[in-house]
Amino acid sequence: MSEQTKLSAAGTSQSAKENLVLYIEALTELAAAVRASARRTQAADEQTAAEFNRLGGDEA
């Protein structure tokens, strides 16, 4: 059994603190993934808009 699992099972204040730290770390990683995805989406949108404009899409 991992140390985290033991602490959680014991219900100690240490487990609550550790769970909060793990939660914050997970949120930080999620935020980084969302930012990276947004950058990729923005780049794809810009490329699509440029291609649309190149093909004369402004007339629509």
Radius of gyration: 23 Å
Helix percent band: over 70%
- Output the number of helix runs: 2
Give the helices and strands as they follow along the chain. HH
Quantity of strands, as a count: 0
Low-pLDDT regions: none
User: Which strand-content bin applies to the residues?
Assistant: under 5%
**Span from first to last CA?**
63 Å
- In one word, what is the shape? rod-shaped
Query: Pairing-aware structural class of the strands and helices?
Result: mainly alpha
The main pleated sheet reads as:
none
Average pLDDT confidence is 85
Descriptive key words:
mainly alpha, 60 residues
Question: How are the SSEs placed, and which strands pair?
Answer:
Elements: H1 3-10, H2 13-54
Helix pairs in contact: 1-2
Summed up:
The protein is mostly helical and 60 residues long. It is built from two helices and no strands.
Task: Explain what you see.
- 83% of the residues lie in helices and 0% in strands.
- The chain has 60 residues and is an all-alpha fold.
- The mean pLDDT is 85.
